[in-house]
Specification:
13 helices; alpha+beta; single chain
């Protein structure tokens, strides 16, 4: 992986100081605080936490500041820090049906039990620049309902599941073992749990492009957005020394369930299939893209012909990691002086051969013209 380029100590020191100076910008402008980034750039913080595989808004905000706002670099910083942390074990699975919901929409049922909850979204904006933000930066507080949002809203997939109209979710491993692709090398075919881990860490732009490709025919997926919900959930853990469940914190997550074309066989009646996406924080576009690609990657499971990039798990899983991809692309900045000189000699020799051949042809033409 590309981490840093070698060079003269003094030159590198000056480059780092120059980078820090650019990050700080004009000293007449007050410096951004970590709290300001965390509170006022929440979507960037959520994306860095999701792709960095570490839920810590303060550290994600620090990474964004240190990276001069470069999201991929911030993801790299957070993942690097993550490797220094001890691992105590795996938390218990979260139950998103118990989510304290802030946003919940469905494109399949208009009248959901509990209702559609629009929450915070760009969907209803006119995409016009708001110059009042530049003028005074003031924002009115959002109105609050007198009635709290009910707890324990059923998921749309549960409604379909109640009628047996959608496939059952069956864990890959019945004993509940959680694979960890950060500690184990990727092998193929990868199970769904590993694929979902990879997609959760995957670059949002890459997954968005792949998800879009499936809708355009490269993967033949035209699903319904069964449900997108965002809100807060408790996280629980069972320490070995205690032997009982304790709540260790609360996280915000976005979940997307895509309801895809139905499948059936001589043994299984026709039923809808699923695509699933889950992210830290409010990352709706990422969760939807993840759900589209998850379903495309299940092609082999449903006996579908693999003919599009989004259905090829090796292509998707190896190339969706933006830290790995960035490293391989940026290694081109490393010195390649010897390689390039070798190619330069070859190009000069080829050009000399061509020029000699053209000169010989011109001589033959001149002699022929003189003879005529």
């Amino acid at each position: 992986m590309y981490v840093a380029v070698k060079g003269g100590d003094k030159a590198i020191e000056n480059s780092l100081r120059y980078l820090a100076d650019i990050r700080r910008g004009d000293r007449r402008v007050p410096e951004l605080s970590i709290a300001q980034i965390r509170e006022q750039l929440p979507l960037a913080v959520d994306r860095v936490m999701t792709e960095g595989s570490l839920h810590d808004p303060d550290l994600a905000a620090l990474a964004i500041k240190q990276a001069n706002g470069d999201i991929q670099e911030a993801v790299f910083l957070l993942r690097a820090y993550r490797t220094t942390l001890p691992r105590f074990g795996a938390s218990l699975p979260i139950d998103t049906a118990k989510m304290q919901i802030r946003r919940r929409i469905s494109a399949t049922y208009k009248d959901l039990p509990g209702g559609q909850i629009l929450g915070p979204s760009f969907d209803y904006t006119h995409r016009l620049l708001d110059f009042t933000l530049a003028a005074n930066g003031e924002t009115r507080e959002a109105p609050k309902s007198d009635e709290p949002v009910p707890e324990g809203m059923p998921r749309v997939a549960d409604i379909l599941d109640h009628e047996g109209l959608i496939e059952l979710e069956i864990p890959d491993d019945e004993d509940g073992t959680v694979p960890d692709l950060t500690r184990e090398s990727m092998s193929f075919p990868a199970d769904r749990a590993t694929r979902l881990q990879n997609l959760a860490r995957g670059d949002e732009g890459f997954l968005l492009a792949l998800g879009y490709s499936t809708q355009r025919g490269f993967g033949n997926a035209h699903p319904f957005a069964g449900e997108i919900r965002m809100g807060e959930l408790p996280v629980s853990f069972v320490p070995e020394e205690l032997g009982f469940e304790i709540e260790i914190g609360e996280i915000t997550v976005t979940e997307c369930q895509m309801v895809n074309q139905f499948k059936g066989s001589s043994k299984v009646p026709p039923q809808f299939t699923r695509g699933y996406g889950l992210t830290f924080g409010h990352c709706e576009r990422k969760a939807m893209s993840m759900a589209l690609v998850d379903r495309a990657l299940r092609a082999r499971e449903f006996g579908e012909e693999i003919e599009a990039p989004a259905q090829d798990e090796e292509f998707v899983l190896y190339h969706s990691d933006n830290v790995e991809a960035s490293g391989f692309v940026q290694h081109l900045k490393l010195p390649h002086y010897v390689d390039f000189q070798g190619e330069l000699v070859t190009v000069r020799e080829l050009r000399a051969e061509i020029e000699a051949r053209e000169k010989e042809n011109r001589t033959d033409d001149d002699e022929l013209a003189a003879a005529e």
